[in-house]
Design goal:
single chain, 171 residues, alpha+beta, Peptide Deformylase, five-stranded antiparallel β-sheet, 7 strands, 24% helix, binds nickel (II) ion
Length: 171
């Protein structure tokens, strides 16, 4: 069990595009296990590797607090293959403390990638599962919720940040 440090905005690790994983090996499985520990230790429902300073395309999520029909999911190299219509949902981020905003997302989504055993998997979900998946894939592409907000709101957040960070979100 290892709980890693979660990096927060404006750390550079959150702004870079993460690299594809070439081989799902023991090192990746250890990373996944540490990310799961870190997510739970912070009361989170999703986490992407760049948030713990690892520039690889790995995400973990567990949205059971919102949707008991789901389970703990980890995806390597996730790729969106289908998506539904747009919705706006209130979101926070573990890496952007003190910020909760309505963010435009897709209501449902289908993602393809690899399991922690290196097998091809497909994850399809709606509601919170879909939203967290999109949020974590954004992290892999160097985007945080601030990048999906208006400039006015983003500038307000940056000003507020100088006075202290506040509580983190959940993903
Ligand atoms: Ni986040």
């Amino acid at each position: 069990m290892a709980v890693l440090e979660i990096l927060t905005y404006p750390h550079l690790s959150l702004k870079r595009r993460a690299e594809e994983v070439e081989k799902v090996d023991g090192e990746i499985r250890k990373l996944i296990s540490d990310m799961v520990d870190t997510m739970y230790a912070n009361g989170g429902i999703g986490l992407a590797a760049p948030q713990v300073g690892v520039p690889k395309r790995v995400v973990v999520l567990d949205v059971r607090p919102y949707d008991p029909s789901t389970s703990l999911i980890s995806i390597v190299n996730p790729e969106v293959v289908a998506e539904g219509e747009e919705v706006i949902n209130e979101e926070g981020c573990l890496s952007v403390p003190g910020c909760v905003e309505g963010i435009k997302r897709r209501r449902w989504i289908k993602v393809r990638g690899l399991s922690e055993r290196g097998r091809e998997i497909e994850v399809e979900g709606e509601g919170m599962l879909a939203i967290v998946l999109q949020h974590e894939i954004d992290h892999l592409n160097g985007r945080v919720i601030l990048d999906r907000m208006s400039r006015v709101k983003r500038d307000l957040y940056k000003k507020r940040l100088q006075k202290g960070k506040g509580e983190g979100g959940m993903m």
